[in-house]
Structure formats: structure tokens, C-alpha cells
Amino acid sequence: MNISCNFDSGNIEVIDASNPQRMLLAMRHDLNSYHFQWFHFNVDGLTPGQRYGFSLTNAGESAYSNAWVGYNAVASYDQINWFRVSSCFENGALDFTIEPSRAQVWFAYFEPYSRARHDGLIEQAQSKAGAELFATGKSIEGRDIQLLRVSRNPNALRKIWIIAQQHPGEHMAEWFMEGLIERLQNRDDAELNALLQQADLYLVPNMNPDGAFRGHLRTNAAGKDLNRAWQAASASETPEVFFVQQQMRQIGVDLFLDIHGDEEIPHVFTAGCEGNPGYSQRLAQLEEEFRRRLVGIGAEFQTAFGYARDQPGQANITLACNAVGLEFDCLSFTIEMPFKDHDDRPNAVTGWNGQRSMQLGKDVLSVTAAMVGGLRD
Ligand code: ZN
């Protein structure tokens, strides 16, 4: 039997695999950071039908140790179909077992979105969805950060920005972008055509390719949390944010969505700008409308659960959502999807997954289309 993680977004350390009933493993830290929570590894040489157990022994020391309660790991035999395996968090370790039907299985924190699939998505956005590669930034390790533009009316007034996976372990964020880009391929979509008459879309499907490739949870290759860098982005330590901010300042922003995953809360939710200095009635009404419409179209979304609201003037403006909302006086949201499940519509087999993230991306375009005319007075 062989346990490996020497591949894109792989992360595991084998401590002691001598007992197949409970192999002792650990998650590696993000480079230059104390954060860890993401895992992704392959096990080969299994005997189908036999029972194997795995223990992530350092789960209790991870960035969000409470998040393991009620969480089930994902597994796949083919890296295409992922399913949940019943998991148990006890004495600081996350344990799960499997009686595999094949000799090889992959485990991960969430259905991984690979760099190869990312490359395919960027190609597909251009060849099928009518996007252009508007600009390309570079990560610390020299990976491309593509900024796509979808512009179908040269007189469109509004600039809509959607960025994803600043936190590299939040792979659901790029699944969301894939769904959104897939919908853009349908040229008979009346909602979408109306939206693109009034607005250009600016899309960054993956903000943190180094972190994603390295199997990080939270940071880039310099150990920096990109979603705490929006007041002091630098070309040396956070070039990913620096690049996008420069582009935003040249182009303008009328709506900003920053796509994330939340480790603890088993629901899809948004976080807005209510704690920003200068937060206005106009922005409050736009936020309320966005949430109401997303519920109204039957999207997998709710408003009862989420983060505690910021007190007036107390927002952390190093976050992208708050920083962009403040600088451009625009509707600005963080959209959070769960690592666990959307408990309003639970699915024991898949939990929240790539497919559901894709559908949310499509649904968010409908709400954006409905609201584009009212984004500015
Ligand atoms: Zn996040």
C-alpha cells in the first residue's frame, strides 16, 4: 500500500501507516504560515472489500478546529465522482474509514479544482463563452492570474467584478466560476444577454494559484492571507491582490463579488459592507435586494445563518469585500459556500460539492442581471 500527495493540491504527511485499521497522518502547514486545514492524498494498493482507517491526527490544531464537528471527508475512485465518507472528530483527530471497491482511492477536504481544469476553463472561456484574456498577473511563484473580460456591448456602462479562491483551499470558489462561465456559453440566454447589454464582466477564476497548487488552506507562497491584504497590497508579498487592484482602479467597479468557502457554517450565505465607514442607505437596500432575489429564484442560499454583522464603522477594511465596497462605493459581497453541506437542502452522499457550487454561480448571474440597472443612481 502506498500513500502519496506529490501532485497538484496534494497535502498529507504519513506519520505511521503500519496499522491499516488506523493509519496515522497529519496535514502540512501552509508555507511560511501557521495555517493548515486542507488535505488531499491518494492511497494505492488497497484490497477491495477490506476495511481501512485513516486518522488526521493534528485536526484539533488546525486553523478552524471546530469545523471538524459535523464534517465528512470526500473520497473518489476516479477524481471525477466524489462522495462523502462518514468521519468522526474525537480527541483532536479526524478519523474516517472506507471499504473500497477499487484498489485506488483519493481523499480530500473538498472536491478539488485542479490547475489542469483551470487551464481548460480559461481556454473554454475564450473559445466558447466569448471572453477575452484582458490581462494576466503573476503569482509569487510565477503562475498566471488571468483576468477575463466578457464585453458584448461597447457602450455598456457597468463594470461587474467577480473574483474567486483568494483562500486557496476553498476550491468550491472556482467551481462557482466554472458554472458561471458555462452559462456564458449559451448565446440564447435572455437574462444574460440583457445583462451584457448594460455591463462588462471582469472575472478572475483563481486569485491564488500558488496556494492552491501547494495544497494550502489560507495563504499564498509568502504566507500572506490575500483577503487581509487589500489596504497594503505589494508587488513583492501579495502581487496577486496588487495586480487586481491596479486593474480595478483603471477600469472601475460597479458590483464586486468575492467567492469563498466557509469551514464551519453549513449554509450558503453572504457577508456585506454594513460595517464600512460611509455605508449608506443605498448600499443597504442593494444588499437586501440581492439577498432577497437570490432566495426568491430558489437558489441554494439563505439569510438566517452567517457571520455576525459588523457594528457601524467597525469593518475590517483589509478584506476585499469591504475595501472594494469602500473605495468604489458599490454593492460588494463576500459569498460563502460550505465545506460541509447546505443544511437547508442536505445531501448525505455529496454534501456541498462542485456541481452545486456551479449552479450557484449560474443563479448569481440571474440576480446580477435583475439588478444591473439599479447599481448606480
Ligand atoms: Zn475564504
Name of the top-level CATH class of the largest domain:
Alpha Beta
> What's the CATH superfamily of the largest domain, by name?
Zn peptidases
CA(first)-CA(last) distance: 64 Å
Bound molecules: zinc ion
Mean pLDDT: 98
Biggest sheet record: 7 strands, mixed
Question: Roughly what fraction of the amino acids lie in strands?
Answer: 15-25%
Dominant shape: globular
Low-confidence stretches: none
Would you give an account of this structure?
The protein is 26% helix and 24% strand. The chain has helices at residues 115-127, 172-184, 190-198, 209-214, 239-251, 281-296, 320-328, 354-371; strands at 2-4, 13-16, 23-26, 40-44, 52-56, 73-76, 82-85, 87-90, 93-98, 105-108, 132-138, 144-150, 158-164, 199-204, 255-262, 269-271, 331-338. Strands 11-12-14-13-15-17-16 form a seven-stranded mixed β-sheet, with helices on both faces. A five-stranded antiparallel β-sheet has the order 1-4-10-6-7, with no helix packed on it. α1 (115-127) packs parallel to α2 and α2 packs across α8. Zinc ion binds next to loops.
